[in-house]
Structure formats: C-alpha cells, structure tokens
Amino acid sequence: MSTRTTNVISRALFYLLVLLILAYTVFPFYWALRSSITPDGELFSTPITYWPAHPTLDQYGKIFSNNLFLHALANSAIVAGAVTIISLAIGSLGAYALGRFSFPGRKFTMYIILSMTIFPQIAVLGSLFTMVNAFHLFDTLGALILTYLIFTLPFTVWVLITFFRSMPAELEQAAYVDGATPFQTFYMVLLPLAAPGLVTTGLLAFIAAWNEFLYALSFIQTPERRTITLAIQTLPESASTSAYAVPWGQMMAATIVVTVPLVVLTLIFQRRIIAGLTAGSIKG
Amino acid sequence: MSGRAWADRILKKPRPRRSGLARRQMLVAWLMLLPTLAVVAVVAAWPLIQVFWMSFTNATLTSLQPPQFVGLQNYERLVRDPVWWTSVVNTIRFTLMTVIIELILGMIIALVINSQFKGRGAMRAAMLVPWAIPTVISAEMWKWMYNDIYGVINDLLVNKFHLLAHNVAFLSIPATSLPAVAAVDVWKTTPFVALLLLAGLQIIPNDIYEAATVDGASWLQRFWYVTVPLLRPAIAVALIFRTLDALRVFDVIYVMFGNQQSTVTMAIYDQNWLVNFSNVGYGSAISVFIFLIIAIFVVIYVTLIGVEVEQ
C-alpha cells in the first residue's frame, strides 16, 4: 500500500473518531430536543421515532403555564445573580490584596483559599443547617445566597488573582505617584482593566450557583421557593396533569429551556471560560 | 497551563515595593482581605469546627434542648452501620469507574483536539456544553434515555445495533444501576478532563516531538516517552479534582435513584441523616468520616504522584 493511501485512510479514520466524539457529546441534547417537541401520544409509543412525525410546541406551552417552574426560573436568577455579585465584590478586593501586595501571612491565606476550592460541601451541611436555622433563614433564598458563597467565593478569588498578577506594576506605580490611595488605585485603575476577568469569573460563579442542587434540596421546603434544579427534579408532582407517571415531554422541554441560555453564554465566552477553568482548575 | 506552572506563577513573590510604604501596604492588604476572610470564616471554617464538635453530641434539629456530649457513641454506631459501609463501597466503585474511564476518554479527546484539523474550534466549543449544564438536568436527560420501554438506549442496543436480545431496565437492576449512572457522569465530565489535559498538551513544545521523530520514535513511543511524562502535572490535577468530586457525588445519583440502598453514596447517606432524619449528631460523624476519607485520598495522591498541586 502506498504512503498516500495510508495517509488517506488514517485521515478518514481520524475524522470518523472526531464524528464519534461529537455524536457522543451532542446526542443527549438532540434527544432532549426531539422529546420536547414530540406529542405525548407519539412519545410514549413504540417503535420510537428519531424525529417526530408531528412536531409540536405543546410541551413548552405546558411548562410556561406551570407557575412553579416560572417561580423557579426567577428564584434561580435571583440566587445566582446575588451570589455572583457578592462574590465578585468581595472576591476582587481579596484577589487584589493577594495578587498585588506582599505581606506576612499572604501565602498561608492563599493555601486556605485553594484548599477551599476542593472543599466537600456535604462535610459542612449539618452545621450550615443549624446556622441557617439560627439566622432564621431556613426555607428562604437568603439561605442559598449565604451558603453558595462557600464554593463561589474561594474560586472567584483564586481565578482573579491570576488576572491581577498579569498586569504590569507600572500601572499602580503611576497611580501612586499621582497621589491615589490604594483603594482608588484598585477601583479606578486595576478593576476596569480586570473587567474581562470579572466577566469570566462571574459567569463561572453564576453557572455554579445556577446548577447547585444539594443545598437547595436541604434548605428549601416551600414549592414556590424552589430553584430550577429542584423544580425540575420535582416536576413530576407539579406538572399539569399528564396521563403518564413522569411527563417526560415536559421534563425535556424544561431541560431545554434551562439549558439553552447556559449553552449560548458558554459558546459566546468559550475562549475565556476555557482559560478561566484551566487556570482555576475548578470542578465542573 | 499545568498545575505546577500555574501554581508557580501565582505563588511567586510579588514585585518589591518601596519600603516606606510597606507597613501601610500591609494594613491595606489585610483590610481588603477582611470581607473574604469573614465570609470564609462564617460559611466554611466555623461550620467545619462545629461539625467536628457536633459529631460527639446527640444534636438534632427538632429538639429544643441543647445538645449533649455523648463521646464516641456516634462513631461506634457508624462503624457497625451496614448501610454506611454499603455507601462507602458504592462511592469507591463509582469513583474508580468514572475516574479511570474519564481519564482515558479525556486523553483520547484531548489528543484529537490537539491535532490540526478543520472544525477544531467548533469541537472544542462543543466540549464545553455538557460541562455547562446542571448535573440534575443531565441526570434527567439520561434517565429518560435509559427508559426500559421508550428509551433510545434500549432502541439503539436492541433494534439498531442488535447487541441485546430484548429491552433492559438498566436503572432497576442492581447490577447495572451503578455502571449506568457512572456512564452519565462520564458523559458530563469527560469533556472537562479533556480540556484540562488539552491545556497541558498545548504547552509541550513541538521541537521535542520533532526530535523524537528524527530519532525514529514511533507514534506510540512518542506518546509514552514524551507526552505522558510531560503531561504528568496536568494528569495529576485532573486526577485529583475528579477523584475528590466523585467521592462526594450526590446530584446525579440522587436524581436517578433517590435514597435507594443499592446505589446509596456517602454524601446521599449523610444528607439523609442530616436533613430527613434531622439527626445532626450522627450525620456530623458521617461528615467527619467523609472528610477524612477525602483527606486520605489527597495524601495518597500527593505522595504517589509526587506532585504538589499547592506547591
């Protein structure tokens, strides 16, 4: 066999592998999409169809008239938004201090924060539970905003340190020479320059909070206060009457509604997210 | 960037400043750190101390009495608790299955993306999609695909590829339920592992491969003697993060199986005692155990691989 033929064959095999990987990654989404536009009658019949004979948006109609689902979307937006803003406000200050200043105890503080990024959240669930009760936050969104900081803040600080350290020292020196205080230097010089870092980190924090399940399951009782992950998990009990034990069509419509914004955001910011993820090496 | 290089960059000494400012600088730095440290103290440090303390008490959420010290009672009960040991075995099985497969698949995908081909950028973007969606949602999506009558997985295996003679209720059979849920985790997390490894691959200089090729190294030899050793820090980081994540697995298994005993994990068992039974004392003892098991894994990794992520 000539080298040319071998090359063509190996190239073909390579692209086959690429296709296989893509199919593996994307197929579950395709299936959720297909199930969300398939009418119940067709969804629960065999042989199963790979594209509905009569596509319909009925499942989406049902989902968007489900008040608990709408509440959950709002709740998740509030919680994830608040957690992101608090983490960025507090974390950028902390990251600036750790990234641009030299002082005793700095390295130790960095170790503490790094070790917190791999902290098992389940390990403190019991004491957070008692704390949430003591603050009268049980069954409120406040409980989630407070406790989600345990995973968003350390990671925000850690990733932002990288951004602050990559800036030239001359920037601050110039500001100091002009008589700026450290805080002014931070707010007026470095923070604006760190904007891309803030966007990436904020997005990662938002996704982490939006996706959280364990604390939401543990601290929320009232159906109207559920976050989106909790609402989807309990959809079979809140869905408008369906002849089937689990209304899979509605479940998949809800899945698509919750996933599409995340996917769009991720694709828009993909380069920065990959940089942030691999720099911070955080969990997904 | 590899774990070590990245830690190096972050932990290197900051640029020297004018000494006259040093004291004031230090004060300002601690002031700026104060909010971060306060939050860390409230939501992590203090709760961790409290969990250790509560594991030696009979604390409950329902009782109005202050908790009483009961010594090692919770721990004595825990070591004799068969369901706890089931959960430990399940968790370790899940961890082994997912971490090994994710590293192998992740390595293959990283090598593919690292080579030059059309559509490389699109593929890298597609890898982020499973990572971005909530675990709860990926669990529901797969639960539906696993459905024993209308599920696409059964249809593919039975009718399209003829690998099975008849439909299987993967999620109801104890033998297949843990591997089935591991497959969901593999799907969701492999892309993340691939991106971590890819970041490591991209900093390996091309000349090394060229030199190896000139010396007559085969593709496999180049992979084994060049890529793997140079990728060790990245592999270590991926291995540690994935293992720690798998050991505390909760969402995906809870959504697919609830508290069911055949798939119960350490975190699910703990959450059940803490929240559903309100037994904070016993639950805290379980938390301490989980914490210790995870700590043991960290120590094993750091000594075995010899890579200190934290430097």
Outline the structure in words.
The complex is a heterodimer of chains A (284) and B (311). Chain A is mainly α and 284 residues long. Chain A has a single domain, classed as MetI-like fold, CATH 1.10.3720.10. Chain A is built from 15 helices and no strands. With 311 residues, chain B is an all-alpha fold. Chain B has a single domain (74-305), classed as MetI-like fold, CATH 1.10.3720. Chain B is 72% helix and 0% strand. Chain B has 13 helices and no strands. Chain B is globular, with a radius of gyration of 24 Å. Mean pLDDT of chain B is 87; it is low at 307-311. At the A-B interface, helix 1, helix 4, helix 5, helix 6 and helix 7 of A face helix 1, helix 2, helix 4, helix 5 and helix 6 of B.
List the main descriptive attributes of the protein structure presented here.
heterodimer; A: 284 residues; mainly alpha; MetI-like fold; 15 helices; 74% helix; B: 311 residues; 13 helices; globular; disordered C terminus
Order of helices and strands of chain B: HHHHHHHHHHHHH
| Largest protein-protein interface | A-B, 106 and 104 residues
For the secondary structure, the number of strands of chain A is 0
Overall geometry of chain B comes to globular
Count up the domains of chain B: 1
- CATH architecture descriptor of chain A: Orthogonal Bundle
Beta fraction of chain B: under 5%
Instruction: Average the pLDDT over all residues of chain A and give the rounded result.
Output: 87
List how many beta strands of chain B DSSP finds: 0
By CATH, the superfamily of chain B comes out as MetI-like
| Number of H/I helices of chain B | 13
Assembly annotation: heterodimer
Summarize the structure.
The complex is a heterodimer of chains A (284) and B (311). Chain A is mainly α and 284 residues long.
Record the SSE blueprint.
The complex is a heterodimer of chains A (284) and B (311).
Chain A: H1 3-36, H2 40-43, H3 58-64, H4 67-100, H5 106-116, H6 125-134, H7 141-165, H8 170-177, H9 182-193, H10 195-211, H11 214-219, H12 228-233, H13 235-238, H14 248-268, H15 270-280
Helix pairs in contact in A: 1-14, 3-14, 4-7, 4-10, 5-7, 7-10, 7-15, 8-9, 10-15
Chain B: H1 3-11, H2 22-54, H3 73-79, H4 82-114, H5 120-132, H6 135-145, H7 152-160, H8 174-201, H9 206-214, H10 219-247, H11 251-257, H12 266-276, H13 280-305
Helix pairs in contact in B: 2-13, 3-13, 4-8, 4-10, 4-12, 5-8, 6-8, 6-11, 8-10, 10-13, 12-13
